[in-house]
Amino acid sequence: MAERRITQPKNRIETIDVLIGFALVGILHAHIIIWYTGAALPSEIYAKYTGFADGIAMGIFGGLVFGKFFSVFSFLFGLSFYLHFSKSKQKNDFPAVYIWRLFLLFLIGIVHHIFWRGDILAIYAVLGMLLILFRKLPPRVLLVIALVFVINLPTHIYDLFIADTPNSEMGLPMEEEAEAYYALVKNADLLRVLEGNWNSWPAKIEYQLKSGRLFMTFGFFLLGFYAGCIRIFTEIKRNISKFSSWNKTSGRISLILLLTGYLIYWAGLVSLPEIKIVPEYKWIMGFLFDIYNAGLTIFYITAVVILFNMKVFNKILKPLGFMGRMALTNYLAQTVFGLIIFYQFGFGLFDKTSLGLNMLFVGVIFYLQLNFSKWWLARYSQGPVEWLWRSLTYFRSSPIRNRQHEGQPISME
């Protein structure tokens, strides 16, 4: 029997699928490295493992992963919004179908949050509704608003001029909830975890508001929508010089801020891994960190686009597109892996494995998800959760099986 092969659907942009797969790998790393927790832990837990491999793992997490890949994912969500809009603007089903689709995503996110409180789908669904109001703004206006939000400027202005200045060191977000959450993850059975997650909504919303995460997420939505408006992803070859220019600029900004961060660390103004910052420097460090995250996010996006369009790297990055075409399925599956490995109702390895060992878990799960995505897409046109989401959107069962012709590639159209 001929080997099953996967072809790219004509209505999909392969570079975007690769970017989504890249974002999924980063999100997997960000969660698995800290035992798949969805909120802050007591500071001493992060400092529990101090081996060489653990230091490398924490350095990669703090400098290159934390706060970056949710931004890449958010950018791609905004870009997908534009692509949906551009396909549907000639029809009468917009924005009604889009709103219904977001409502279904919200329900998926609610269920996901009950199992794991770090869910972002429900937040995406709510902010996606808000994105509808911005869709007709001129591209330059979108860009300005997006840049203001991605560096979290509204939150920092509020903290500087309105909020009370704290008299204590800045610690981890939601630190007051950390002890209770630590006890829950370490000791609770499944039902208690579900109950605790359901009751965590107020703390989650408070964190999203106080940290400015909502602003940054929505800012990257707008930035992705702007990228769609100027059509740089539908005409990548023609715009590769723009990607290169943005890559160089964002890379230089990120490198300067990263080196600044190391100097601040060696000067003793911040301690790691507990993330304690002396109050006199709290505001400026927080602001610089958000600028750094935004700059590195843009650097990642542009770098992947540039590399994928180079022959030598195309084959290396291409498999990420399989994961990207099943983004929702893979995102939810990561939670299944995380709960089974670390939580009490699974193998119970929470805080028993070092950060270095958790890096190995990242590699194993990535390998499994990548190969499962290849296997699935060789037989089916979309991921199982994507199929369910689409079928519920249009109130009819969407075709999922590929038509197979011996010796021919399987059509993914």
Describe the structure.
- The protein has 413 residues and is an all-alpha fold.
- It has one domain (16-375).
- 66% of the residues lie in helices and 1% in strands.
- It is built from 19 helices and two strands.
- A two-stranded antiparallel ribbon has the order 1-2.
- Strand 1 and strand 2 (276-277) form a beta hairpin.
- The protein is globular, with a radius of gyration of 21 Å.
- The protein starts with 13 loop residues before the first helix and ends in a 19-residue tail after the last helix.
Describe this protein with a few key phrases:
mainly alpha; two-stranded antiparallel sheet; 2 strands; disordered C terminus
Put the structure in a nutshell.
With 413 residues, the chain is mainly alpha-helical.
Overall pLDDT, averaged? 87
Q: What structural class is derived from the secondary structure elements?
A: mainly alpha
**Shape, per Cα inertia axes:** globular
Trace the largest sheet across and list its strands.
Answer: 1-2
Structural domain tally: 1
Gap between N and C termini? 22 Å
Using only C-alpha atoms, the radius of gyration works out to 21 Å
Q: Work out the helix count.
A: 19
